[in-house]
Amino acid sequence: MVRHECGFEAPIHCKRCGRPLSSNERTGLYCPHCGRRVSMLCPGCGRLW
């Protein structure tokens, strides 16, 4: 489960390798396995993750 700064939590998986994503304040959403960076809108507040 990845938590957004607004408190919304969701299990988000990488589309390239299928593993769970990690979240970091500086880099945002990323896959620790393949290195893919993900940009998406938070369904809870509508801001960029």
Description:
- The protein has 49 residues and is an all-beta fold.
- Helix content is 0%, strand content 24%.
- It contains no helices and five strands.
- The strands form two sheets. A three-stranded antiparallel β-sheet has the order 3-4-5, with no helix packed on it. The chain has a two-stranded antiparallel ribbon with strand order 1-2.
- Strand 1 (2-3) and strand 2 form a beta hairpin.
- The protein is globular, with a radius of gyration of 10 Å.
- The model has no long low-confidence stretch (mean pLDDT 92).
- Keywords: ATP-binding, Helicase, Hydrolase, Nucleotide-binding.
- GO terms for molecular function: helicase activity.
Low-confidence blocks of residues: none
Strand content: 15-25%
Rg of Cα set = 10 Å
Shape: globular
Mean pLDDT: 92
Number of helices: 0
Helix content: under 10%
Q: Strand tally, please?
A: 5
Task: Provide the spatial order of strands within the biggest beta sheet.
Answer: 3-4-5
Would you tell me the structural class of the helices and strands? mainly beta
H/E series, N to C? EEEEE
Largest sheet: 3 strands, antiparallel
First CA to last CA: what distance? 14 Å
